[in-house]
Write a structure and sequence with these properties.
single chain; about 160 residues; alpha/beta; Rossmann fold; 7-stranded mixed β-sheet
């Protein structure tokens, strides 16, 4: 069975909800094993074992979260030249924009020569005030459905060798 690795980091719960929705969509594909793993617990071995990836994190100060950045820092060189052509997608839980975080992940994926299967899916929570930024997030059903659809799409493409 092919494996889809979903690596996530979430501080206020929004990115975690998105990761769970994507995993639920991916698990609809019976021939794919889905591994949902926190960025702090994931590493090069998990990347090498999987045939496809979904990277999920919040935007923090116009960048990917520090824990996700640390995951990429830890894994970058050990897997360099070993993941070429594998498919990936990105989910960003953003307070206002999310494009900088998505761009950072895209640059790392480009270095690994991964293949993006969709544009980054950015869910904006419109959290601007400090109390809103730190408050636990609730992602609405429509946004979670889009995350679920992206997970299902990535898994189906893996199952049918489309990527």
């Amino acid at each position: 069975m092919k494996k889809l690795l979903i690596v996530f980091h979430s501080r206020t719960g929004g990115a975690l909800q998105m990761a769970h929705a994507a995993a639920a969509g991916a698990r609809r594909e019976p021939s794919i094993t889905v591994r949902l793993q926190g960025a702090v617990d994931s590493g090069p071995a998990a990347l090498l074992e999987a045939e496809g990836y979904l990277f999920v994190c919040p935007e923090n100060l116009a960048a990917m979260s520090g824990a996700m950045k640390e995951f990429f820092d830890r894994c970058y060189y050990p897997v360099l030249e070993r993941l070429i052509g594998r498919p990936y997608a990105t989910l960003i839980c953003a307070g206002s924009d999310g494009t900088s975080a998505a761009r950072q992940i895209e640059r790392i994926a480009t270095g690994w020569r991964l293949k993006a299967i969709a544009p980054p899916l950015i869910v904006c929570t419109s959290s601007q005030a400090p109390e809103d930024i730190l408050r636990p997030k609730h992602i609405d059903a429509a946004a979670l459905a889009r995350c679920e659809e992206l997970g299902a799409t990535l898994a189906a493409g893996l199952a049918f060798d489309i990527y």
